[in-house]
Amino acid sequence: MLPQTCLLTFHGIGAPIAPLQPGEEQYFVGEDVFSKALDLLPVLEKAHGVTIELSFDDGNASDYRTGFPGLIAAGRTGAFFVLAGRLDQDGYLTRRQVREMHDHGMEIGTHGWDHVDWRTLDAAARQREFVDARKALEDVTGAPVTKAAVPFGRFDAGVLRSLKAENYAKVFTSTSGLAYRAAWFQPRWSPTRAFDPARDLPRRLALSQKIKAAVFAALRPVRYRYGAL
C-alpha cells in the first residue's frame, strides 16, 4: 500500500514579530497564501485520494493569531509543536493560548526547549530537550505529549534512537515526502515564502511521489537503526 498522507509544516504566517535565527524568515508565508492553501486542501484531497494534515513548528505567535482560527474556520485540526523555553515570550505562544488550542482539539507536541540541533546534545541537554520540555507542555495542557518534531530537520540515528527510548509515539521531521499515517517516523514538507499552493501541492501528491515515499519508508528504519527498538 502506498502512503496517502501529506504533512505540511508552517513555521510562521505573516510578518515575524520575534527576532529570528538566520534563515528562518524564508519559512514565513503570507496570510493570504495560508488562506488559499486551506481553501485548496479539500479539492486536492478528493482529486488525489490523500489526507493533508497541517502542523506548525516553533510556537510563533502567528500560530494562535492566524493558524488556529484558520483551522477552526475550515473545520480542521492541526498539530502545534511548541518550544517550551519560549512560552510567554514576546512573539511566541503563551501558556493560556496553548491551553486554549488544546481545548479546541488541536494536538500539542514538543519541539524541544531551546531550538537547538539535537545531534549535538550532551546528557543534560537531552534531559532538557526530550524530557523537561515535554513535561512543561503537559503541565500546560493537562494531557500527555506523545509527539515530537525535530528542530531544523536535523537528525541522525542517535537522535531517533533517543526519541524511541523516551517513548514518543511519533516523530516528525522536515524530510520531504508523503507519510504512512500509522508510522512512527513522519516526513513533512515546509512551505517557504515562495509557496504557491495551486502550483506546489499537486506535484507533491503525484503517484510518482507516493512510490518514492514508500521506498524511503521501507529503507529508513534500516538506515537509521531505530526499527528494532
UniProtKB/TrEMBL annotation:
<dbReference type="GO" id="GO:0005576">
    <property type="term" value="C:extracellular region"/>
</dbReference>
<dbReference type="InterPro" id="IPR051398">
    <property type="entry name" value="Polysacch_Deacetylase"/>
</dbReference>
<dbReference type="InterPro" id="IPR011330">
    <property type="entry name" value="Glyco_hydro/deAcase_b/a-brl"/>
</dbReference>
<dbReference type="GO" id="GO:0005975">
    <property type="term" value="P:carbohydrate metabolic process"/>
</dbReference>
<comment type="similarity">
    <text>Belongs to the polysaccharide deacetylase family.</text>
</comment>
<dbReference type="InterPro" id="IPR002509">
    <property type="entry name" value="NODB_dom"/>
</dbReference>
<keyword id="KW-0732">Signal</keyword>
<dbReference type="GO" id="GO:0016810">
    <property type="term" value="F:hydrolase activity, acting on carbon-nitrogen (but not peptide) bonds"/>
</dbReference>
<protein>
    <recommendedName>
        <fullName>Chitooligosaccharide deacetylase</fullName>
    </recommendedName>
</protein>
<feature type="domain" description="NodB homology">
    <location>
        <begin position="50"/>
        <end position="229"/>
    </location>
</feature>
<dbReference type="Pfam" id="PF01522">
    <property type="entry name" value="Polysacc_deac_1"/>
</dbReference>
<comment type="function">
    <text>Is involved in generating a small heat-stable compound (Nod), an acylated oligomer of N-acetylglucosamine, that stimulates mitosis in various plant protoplasts.</text>
</comment>
